[in-house]
Structures are given as C-alpha cells and as structure tokens.
Amino acid sequence: MPFLDYVLQQPSYGWKDEQGALIKPSAHQIFSEFFSRLNVYNDRRNWLPFLAWLKVLCLLPFFFIFLTHYLHWWTITAAFVYSMIIMGTHGTIWHHRYCTHGAYKFRNNFWRFFTKNLTISAIPEEIYVISHHVHHAKSDQPGDPYNAQAGFLYCFLADVNHQPIAKNLTESDYNRVMLLMKHTGIKPNTYAEYRRWGSYANPYREVLSWIGNWSFWYLIFFLIGGHALACSLFGAAGFWAVGVRTFNYEGHAKGKDKQRKGIDYHAKDKSINQLWPGLVAGEWHNNHHLYPKSARSGFKPMLFDLAWYYIKFMSVIGAVRSYRDDKKRFYEQYYKPNLKRTVPNAAV
Which residues pair with 323 in a beta bridge? Predict the structure, then answer.
C-alpha cells in the first residue's frame, strides 16, 4: 500500500466504502469524531489538534475585546490588512510553498526562523504539511483529508478529523514522515517519543515556541499602538485562523465542477482560481495544483502574487538561495496552446 494511503489517521467513519466510493459522514458523525479527537484526557496523543484549536480559543477573547473596546477606523483597517493580507500571504509563503512543497530554499536557518515567525503563530506545521501531501496525491478522491465533495464540515474540521498523522506507523514509515518535515526546522520526536505523543513535533517545544511567538508580537504591537493595536491584530489573527479552515472547500468549488476555460487549466481535480484568495494571499489554487512546487502561482500578468513577491525579494537580498518558478512552463505547456486553439491566427 502506498505510504500516503495510510500516513494519516483514518477517521472512525473511514475514507471510502467497500465499493471504493467516498464516504460522506453526517454532521453528527463529524462532530463526534471532532470532540473525540480533541480529548487529551482519554489519549494524550490528541495533543496537537487540541493545541491547534486551543490557539483559536485563546485568540477569540482578543477579537471580542477589539469589537467592544477598540473599534475605530484605524484599528478596523489594521485588522483587515493583517487578517486578510498579512496572515493569508504568510500562510502561502511559509506553510504552503515552503514547508509543504519546498518551492524555495533559505540561505541559512536565521532566514527560515525569521520567515516562520513573521506573523502570530496559529497553525502547527505538522498538521498542515503531511496532510497536504496527501491532498495533492488524492485531490478530490477518497482519502483526500479535505475533500469538498463531502461537505463544508468535512473540510472545516479536517485539521482534527483527517489531518493528524497515524499513531501506529512503523519506525521506517516514521522516518519517511521525518524526511517530509526535516527542512521545516521543527525538531522531531524520536521514534520512541512519537509512540508516546503520536506526533512528529514535541508538545513542550511547540508550547514554548507558541509562548515566545505571541509574547514577541504582543510586545511589538503594544509598543507601536498600545493595547488597541495589539488586541486588534491578535483578534484579526483569530478571525483568519477560523476563516482559513474554509478555504479548501471554496478552493475546490464546494465539490462542484466550476472550472472555466482560459482561467483554470488543471482539469484533474475540482480546484479553481479565485480572485479574492489570489489577490490577498497569492493563492491561485488551480495554478498551484498545476505546478505545486512553483514558488509563483500568479503566472499571468494580472494575477497579483504577494507570496511570490516576498520570495523574490528575499532572493534579491540573498536570504533565499534558490527557488523554482514555473511561469515559463505554464506559458509553453498551457497558455500558448490554449490561445492557439481559441484564436487560431493569434501571434503568441
């Protein structure tokens, strides 16, 4: 059985039925699985998804303080920019293009640490990375951890129900997980520690990293704009942390066929290019599925790609030593052939 078929912890309702069709669990089944997997008292190996949602819960008070005490035009503007643009773009730069796909390489560990901590920490790398490899291997097929065809809740709660790694991997298979995570800079558990904690990441190091990141950013925001700015931006991070969990449902057209000729070129799944995620976070999702290892996904001139601009800037100053850019391949393999088919006499 291929490694990506079993590297994730299968939900109690399973990925597919005996005929190989996608299992679409009920809302009751999804919520039951969700709360079961958050229960660290019954199984301490549930600590990582529990930590991910604990961060969200800890950000919510800041959001309510922002709404009740600091709702001014400048804090609203700051919160909008931080949640919609800065947090979103950082997610694309760090979790998506670097941690998962290795689309670029840093000059040294300092620049990796710098980029990792550019924003308030909200999503554990391990939860994102391993499951995203599975997502690309099984996009819109049974086993895809956020298969939009199974509904909104299936995607929204996927980080708990479908994305954690399996708890019974052999040492050989765990070593393969380590290879997928090694470049992220997250210090791994030993195999014995993995058996104890059910994860690549160590809970003590993750909590210390979380405390350090939040303490640093609250202090910086406070020094710039007092509690008003700090609470507003921490609240904005909480808003983003909830909203980002809806992305793959929307990015795969809610499980429907909504691809458009001349806009969406990757026809092997239901991914689509969307204007808003593209503009604010460089997440041109269909383009990304076309060339997942590319540091740029906004290939056409009008496709604004803030994540790519950051990577390119870091390359110019020497912080990034190499990157992959598939723009030329896109034009040769897809754009020009499509233009010739639609406009036979066009000069390309």
Answer: 104
3-state class (DSSP) for residue 41 = coil
d(CA 232, CA 81): 11
Total domain count for the chain?
A: 1
Please check the confidence at residue 339 and state whether its pLDDT lies above 90.
no
Which residue range is the domain that position 232 belongs to? Answer: 3-256
Residue pair 243/283 in contact by the 8 Å Cβ criterion: no
Instruction: Provide the 8-state DSSP code for 302.
Output: T
* pTM listed for this prediction: 0.93
Domain annotation covers residue 263: no
Q: Is the residue at 32 inside a domain? A: yes
Q: Compute the distance between CA of residue 271 and CA of residue 251 in angstroms, rounded to an integer.
A: 6
User: Is residue 325, in this structure, part of any structural domain at all?
Assistant: no
Return the pLDDT at 341. Answer: 66
Which of 122, 134, 128 minimizes the C-alpha distance to 243? 122
Q: How far apart are CA 137 and CA 26, in angstroms?
A: 25
In sequence order, the 6+-apart residues with CB closer than 8 A to the CB of 96 are 128, 132, 283, 288, 307
Give the SS3 label for residue 320. Answer: strand
